[in-house]
């Protein structure tokens, strides 16, 4: 079960997605990202998280793994894996995107968790309104594979 976590920074959606998937507080994920240099500052001084940063942060958390080596172009919901971090076009602005979590349950129902609002989308019409561009495949590690969280 994914617990919805609100991003605490204007550009903290990627961190909040990792926090949701790992079941760890946002502040802890941000501390890990800062310690390892994964918060890249843009020209306006705000940080952002790229797909490679999300993969590296998830490696440090060790309870989840972003298995995509790069973002995969989105075509339709049916082709998404059971767990993913989705890149959503942010109002068509160049180089602006927003990260959200996608989950498909065993019964086939799908959910998108948006850390900005925070909101869980579960109706097909709501999900269809989101402009998904790319995604990263995420896997949860088995309990015997999990090591303590890197500090």
TrEMBL record:
<dbReference type="GO" id="GO:0008233">
    <property type="term" value="F:peptidase activity"/>
</dbReference>
<feature type="domain" description="Peptidase C39">
    <location>
        <begin position="3"/>
        <end position="141"/>
    </location>
</feature>
<protein>
    <submittedName>
        <fullName>Peptidase C39 family superfamily</fullName>
    </submittedName>
</protein>
<dbReference type="Pfam" id="PF03412">
    <property type="entry name" value="Peptidase_C39"/>
</dbReference>
<dbReference type="GO" id="GO:0006508">
    <property type="term" value="P:proteolysis"/>
</dbReference>
<dbReference type="InterPro" id="IPR005074">
    <property type="entry name" value="Peptidase_C39"/>
</dbReference>
<dbReference type="GO" id="GO:0005524">
    <property type="term" value="F:ATP binding"/>
</dbReference>
<dbReference type="GO" id="GO:0016020">
    <property type="term" value="C:membrane"/>
</dbReference>
């Amino acid at each position: 079960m994914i617990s919805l976590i609100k991003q605490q920074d204007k550009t903290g959606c990627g961190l909040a997605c990792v926090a949701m998937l790992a079941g760890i507080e946002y502040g802890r994920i941000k501390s890990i990202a800062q310690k390892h240099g994964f918060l890249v500052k843009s020209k306006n001084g705000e940080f952002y998280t790229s797909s490679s940063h999300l993969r590296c942060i998830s490696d440090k958390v060790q309870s989840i793994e972003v298995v995509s080596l790069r973002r995969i172009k989105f075509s339709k919901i049916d082709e998404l894996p059971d767990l993913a971090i989705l890149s959503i076009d942010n109002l068509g602005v160049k180089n602006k995107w927003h990260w959200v979590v996608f989950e498909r349950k065993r019964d086939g129902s799908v959910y998108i968790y948006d850390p900005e609002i925070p909101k869980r989308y579960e109706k097909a019409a709501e999900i269809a309104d989101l402009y998904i561009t790319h995604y990263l495949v995420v896997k949860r590690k088995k309990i015997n594979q999990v090591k303590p969280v890197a500090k």
